[in-house]
Design a protein that fits this description.
193 residues; 31% strand; alpha+beta; three-stranded mixed β-sheet
């Protein structure tokens, strides 16, 4: 069977060599096929439940993500040797802001002056670009500006030890990228446990 395949392949190669147009056409088809395979493999994969664009979350979703950050910090800080049980509270100066994609429309207005010359003016207007979904139109979000952190309070069982207190403070500074003056660490009281 393989010998028959090679004979067919040899026959096609000989025909291509005799006919330059056929050879160029085959090479072009191969190049297009390779390009299509590359493009489809490089395209981002999306699931059926995901929209092609990210839509703006609601205020409830912001609150959930802020509480989730506190929970994650509590979990990681309680893993520091000697820290014990840890509670975290984060306060913010601002809220999260979503930056929508803008659709710009340009309109040209023309008029004729008394001396017969035409003059044109352009007016641009921008509005948020939207995508239609099952819940109506929603804006296309380019980026999210995270809220500015005002301060962090950490309450830990082991915070009476100065080295543990400093380790907790350094960890919070590192994770949140904030200054030491924004982080306060306190020892957990007996009633707080």
């Amino acid at each position: 069977m393989e010998g028959k395949r090679f004979k067919i392949f040899d026959s096609l190669v000989k025909r291509m060599r005799k006919n330059k147009k056929l050879e160029i056409g085959v090479y072009a088809a191969i190049a297009i096929a390779v390009a299509l395979i590359y493009i489809t493999s490089a395209a981002p994969k999306t699931s059926k439940t995901d929209d092609k664009t990210k839509t703006a979350p609601t205020n409830t979703e912001y609150a959930v993500s802020e509480r989730e950050l506190e929970r994650r910090l509590e979990s990681i800080l309680s893993s520091i040797s000697g820290a014990g049980n840890v509670r975290v509270m984060i306060t913010y100066d601002t809220t999260s802001q979503m930056v929508p994609a803008l659709s710009t429309d340009t309109q040209k207005n023309g008029s004729e002056s008394n001396d017969g010359l035409n003059s044109y003016s352009q007016a641009e207007s921008s509005s948020p670009a939207t995508v239609s979904g099952s819940g109506g139109n929603s804006p296309i979000i380019i980026t999210e500006i995270l809220p500015k952190i005002r301060g962090v309070i950490v309450i830990a069982e082991g915070a009476a030890d100065i080295s543990i207190r400093l380790n907790l403070q350094y960890a919070v500074q590192t994770v949140l990228g904030i200054d030491a003056s924004c982080v306060e660490v306190f020892e957990m009281g007996v009633n707080s446990k």
